[in-house]
Write a structure and sequence with these properties.
One of its GO terms (cellular component) is membrane. This protein has helices at residues 4-89, 96-124, 126-131, 133-145, 166-187, 224-235; strands at residues 151-156, 191-199, 202-209, 239-244, 250-257. The chain is of the alpha+beta class. It has a five-stranded mixed beta sheet, with helices on one face.
Length: 259
């Protein structure tokens, strides 16, 4: 017959061997949860940091555009104004033909002043604040169509005139400028179509062309223009899809939470 002390020791040892794995499992679970929480917090901090960095970069770009726009409006505009005043002060009494040329120069200079001031507003984004995104896009298209190289169609959901965000509108405007600039530089297109629609808290933007297209998966096809486009879309928590193939044109579709 076993002694009570030995039986108790055996029982205690058995209980420890049974409980120890359970404690080990609990410890592993708690440790894994803490580790995952730390990883999630680190990832969240990284996302916040990247968003702030993108915001700062875009703010610097916007400040540069503001400076260029102000210089166009103030300095070059002033010089042209002075030129116009100088030409207007010339008194020609006999040579009628010279007078016509001077008057023509004054008229052209005045038109240059008006065009430069308007261009300055577009670059600064002032047009968006004053007249809205639709008007600013129309003015941008008018500038492009003066080259007689493109036929541009703009489709704009009227709902966007009432559901609006000035801050996002400026980024969207710059986004469209970048997309169109890529088409002008690389696509050899004749027709460009821009569409903005709104549905259930999301803005859907598409920019398409009938140009030479490209293979989106081919290395070296994501230049600085597309890099800037992806940056702006990430800043807006949006999504982008690029459909293109050689000789078939390109369509860029973007979805953004809005307003």
């Amino acid at each position: 017959m076993e002694k009570p002390g030995i039986s108790f020791l055996i029982l205690l040892t058995t209980v420890i061997f049974l409980i120890a794995p359970a404690f080990l499992v609990v410890y592993v679970i708690v440790y894994s949860r803490k580790k995952k929480k730390l990883q999630d917090e680190k990832a969240e901090m990284q996302l916040v940091y990247e968003a702030e960095l993108l915001n700062s970069q875009l703010a610097m770009q916007e400040q540069t555009m503001q400076t260029i726009g102000a210089d166009l409006h103030d300095h070059i505009g002033q010089l042209l104004s002075l030129t116009s005043l100088t030409l207007g002060s010339i008194e020609i009494r006999d040579d009628h033909r010279s007078a016509e040329k001077v008057n023509s120069a004054i008229e052209i200079t005045s038109k240059c002043i008006a065009e430069l001031r308007h261009l300055g507003k577009l670059i600064q984004g002032q047009q968006i604040t004053e007249e809205g995104l639709y008007s600013a896009l129309q003015q941008e298209i008018a500038w492009l169509e003066k080259t007689d190289r493109f036929r541009i169609r703009l489709s704009f959901d009227e709902v966007l005139n009432s559901v609006t965000s000035e801050e996002k509108n400026l980024i969207i405007y710059r986004l469209i400028q970048e997309l169109v600039n890529n088409i002008v530089k690389h696509a050899a297109a004749k027709e460009i179509e821009i569409s903005l629609t709104y549905n259930e808290g999301r803005l859907h933007l598409s920019v398409s062309d009938d140009g030479k297209g490209f293979d989106p998966e081919k290395p070296g096809k994501k230049g600085m223009g597309m890099f800037n486009i992806h940056k702006r879309i990430r800043l807006l928590n949006g999504q982008v899809k690029i459909n293109s193939s050689p000789d078939e044109g390109t369509k860029v579709s973007i979805t953004i939470p809005y307003p």
